[in-house]
Amino acid sequence: MSVREFLEQEEYRLLAPQAQKAAETKGRAYQEEESDVRTCYQRDTDRIVHSKAFRRLMHKTQVFLQPEGDHYRTRMTHTLEVSRIARTIARALRLNEDLAEAASLGHDLGHTPFGHAGEVALSEVMGIPFHHNEQSLRVVDRLEKNGQGLNLTHEVRMAILGHTGLSIPETLEGQIVRVSDRIAYINHDIDDAIRAGILTEADIPREISYVLGESHRERINTLVTDMITHTSETGTLGMRPEVSQAMNELRSFLFARVYKNPVAKGEESKARGILQALYTYYTKHPEALPADFIPQLDFDGMPRVICDYIAGMTDKYAVHKYETIFIPAAWHVRS
């Protein structure tokens, strides 16, 4: 018996009946020989972590555009926080922690540079809504490994797609990632807003703090713990109504005070301008696209390929390309 087969058998012994078992995966789009030492979901985690799109998350905006300070979240740190929350909940409920981890680490691979401003910019130039969850799925299915994709399992793919939007993941592990994403960003965005001087703890409405707690640590602990205890008691994944309502009210508070705050979002029009200028340029000069994107033009069409290229950029790289294309280079005359 291989290590993988042993681990698959152990899942039946240790995990809850409703947990997704690795041996019962719906499989991959392209059949592959199984690993001797890793389950399919462990393998998916490794593929995501070793992908180029995952590495780029460290230089992509979470909320604050190019903040001055090393402690503000990026897409990478957000992703890691989601993973930890999802794994904690999955483990406590005896669900498949490997599946939750893989989906968590892959859920934001399709995010644009400059956060939400990038999504708005690409939606405007494409003439159709740009949804980062759909782009994340496209990254793992089509764009990674020079167009081969990562060939992930069905369950991980659907959890990535369903971490936001109308599509709800079919597995409980995928649904946990969906909730964990919201728990993570609501709380760490408050933390960053306080660090930026936009909020203080005292600004958070008392009725919310009364339910969730008075600090970053208390709020996360309340939400995670309640998710575990309520699900265990009822058999239905979720939080108590008063806790869920408080979380939704805190999210609404964030939209009003942080996500639409002119201090935090003051540079967004510039960010949109950069991405839209790049899109226009590459539409006129598709030959300037990187060589590995050129073959895609015949299959996906110019708008989609340019969108893929720009969506994959980091904040710094987008600024660099803009400066290279549109800003005159300095030159010196020899004396």
UniProtKB/TrEMBL annotation:
<dbReference type="Pfam" id="PF13286">
    <property type="entry name" value="HD_assoc"/>
</dbReference>
<keyword id="KW-0378">Hydrolase</keyword>
<dbReference type="InterPro" id="IPR023023">
    <property type="entry name" value="dNTPase_2"/>
</dbReference>
<dbReference type="InterPro" id="IPR006261">
    <property type="entry name" value="dGTPase"/>
</dbReference>
<feature type="domain" description="HD">
    <location>
        <begin position="75"/>
        <end position="186"/>
    </location>
</feature>
<dbReference type="InterPro" id="IPR051094">
    <property type="entry name" value="Diverse_Catalytic_Enzymes"/>
</dbReference>
<comment type="similarity">
    <text>Belongs to the dGTPase family. Type 2 subfamily.</text>
</comment>
<dbReference type="Pfam" id="PF01966">
    <property type="entry name" value="HD"/>
</dbReference>
<dbReference type="InterPro" id="IPR026875">
    <property type="entry name" value="PHydrolase_assoc_dom"/>
</dbReference>
<dbReference type="InterPro" id="IPR003607">
    <property type="entry name" value="HD/PDEase_dom"/>
</dbReference>
<dbReference type="GO" id="GO:0016793">
    <property type="term" value="F:triphosphoric monoester hydrolase activity"/>
</dbReference>
<dbReference type="InterPro" id="IPR006674">
    <property type="entry name" value="HD_domain"/>
</dbReference>
<protein>
    <recommendedName>
        <fullName>Deoxyguanosinetriphosphate triphosphohydrolase-like protein</fullName>
    </recommendedName>
</protein>
